[in-house]
């Protein structure tokens, strides 16, 4: 990491296990997240990513092990799914105030920070996947959290939308110096700015920088016959345009995915995502 030091630890988990009946959903989980750090959880379906994130947010108490939070730690949570009654009219502004009282200027500033100020009076039902995700980021950021927990933040968003959201996550980290815990929907791709990747499979299968995880035998073994597709990283090259409405135009071949130690122009399909 860099000039954002000294790194203040926001939360640490030590030897955490969550059991339901005789079954361990996760066990032996240990990691910490510092201010300004981006930690990404990856792992197959059912490997315990959401369970681990819920332990971090405090929604689930571990059956055993220790969770230590910095005193007064504020966490902003962006859920994987939000239960909304889609038949009722709901504006973005109203969504922002459902879980707290905020002034008009606070709401405007939070939406501005995610490039969604123009959507303030829009109906939530009419937002695109990427716009909805931005509004959820704003909803989490309005409390000025020390730590943001993002459960599959690019789910249901197309590739240029994914790039824009990853860029936004980086910007949020840079401007607020919050810690970020992100769950990746994809076992093969993580944001390049990730400081630590933690690969779960009920326990911590392997961890380290994206490069370390990519070359770890445990990660390779977890991939099995899908191993030909090693971990790749989203690279941001500032060769796209941000428009006033928050949309991003990605130039042809501008996004690059670093793969097997090289940087190649790739299409999303070309990467062979499921
Ligand atoms: N409340 C619960 N009671 C019993 N089992 C549960 C409960 N919550 C989750 N599980 C199980 O625990 C395991 C881990 O689930 P979790 O949602 O943490 O995995 P995940 O890695 O986030 O999966 P996905 O990628 O599919 O979202 C799964 O097998 C799931 O069925």
TrEMBL record:
Compositional bias of kind Basic residues: 264-274
One of the record's GO molecular function terms: ATP binding
Encoding gene per record: znuC
Keyword hit for Endoplasmic reticulum: no
Listed Basic and acidic residues bias regions: 242-263
UniProt similarity note: Belongs to the ABC transporter superfamily.
Disordered, as annotated region: 242-274
Residue ranges of every copy of the ABC transporter domain listed in the record: 11-226
KW Zinc (keyword) present: yes
Keywords carried by this UniProt record: ATP-binding, Cell membrane, Ion transport, Membrane, Nucleotide-binding, Translocase, Transport, Zinc, Zinc transport
Protein name stated in the entry: Zinc import ATP-binding protein ZnuC
Biological classification of the source: Bacteria, Pseudomonadati, Pseudomonadota, Alphaproteobacteria, Hyphomicrobiales
PANTHER family: METAL TRANSPORT SYSTEM ATP-BINDING PROTEIN TM_0124-RELATED (PTHR42734), ZINC IMPORT ATP-BINDING PROTEIN ZNUC (PTHR42734:SF9)
């Amino acid at each position: 990491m860099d000039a954002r030091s000294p790194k203040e630890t926001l939360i640490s988990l030590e030897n955490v296990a969550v059991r339901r009946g005789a079954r361990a959903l996760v066990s032996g989980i240990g990691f910490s997240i510092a201010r300004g750090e981006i930690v990404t959880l990856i792992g197959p379906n059912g490997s315990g990513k959401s369970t681990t994130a819920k332990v971090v947010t405090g929604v689930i108490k571990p059956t055993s092990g220790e969770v230590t939070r910095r005193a007064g730690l504020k966490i902003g949570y962006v859920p994987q799914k939000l239960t909304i009654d889609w038949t009722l009219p709901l504006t973005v502004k109203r969504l922002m105030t459902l879980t707290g009282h905020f002034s008009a200027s606070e709401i405007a500033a939070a939406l501005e920070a995610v490039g969604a100020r123009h959507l303030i009076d829009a109906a939530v039902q009419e937002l695109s996947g990427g716009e909805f995700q931005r509004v959820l980021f704003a909803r989490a950021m309005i409390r000025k959290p020390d730590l943001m927990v993002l459960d599959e933040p690019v789910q249901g968003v197309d590739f240029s939308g994914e790039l824009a959201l990853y860029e936004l996550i980086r910007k949020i980290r840079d401007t607020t110096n919050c810690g970020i815990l992100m769950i990746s929907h994809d076992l093969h791709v993580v944001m390049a700015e990730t400081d630590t990747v933690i690969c779960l499979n009920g326990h911590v299968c392997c961890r380290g920088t994206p490069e370390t995880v990519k070359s770890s035998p445990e990660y390779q073994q977890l991939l099995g016959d899908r191993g030909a597709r090693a971990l790749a990283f989203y690279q941001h090259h500032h060769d796209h345009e941000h428009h006033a409405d928050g949309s991003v135009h990605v130039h042809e071949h501008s996004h690059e995915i670093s793969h097997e130690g090289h940087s190649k122009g790739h299409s999303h399909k070309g990467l062979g995502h499921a």
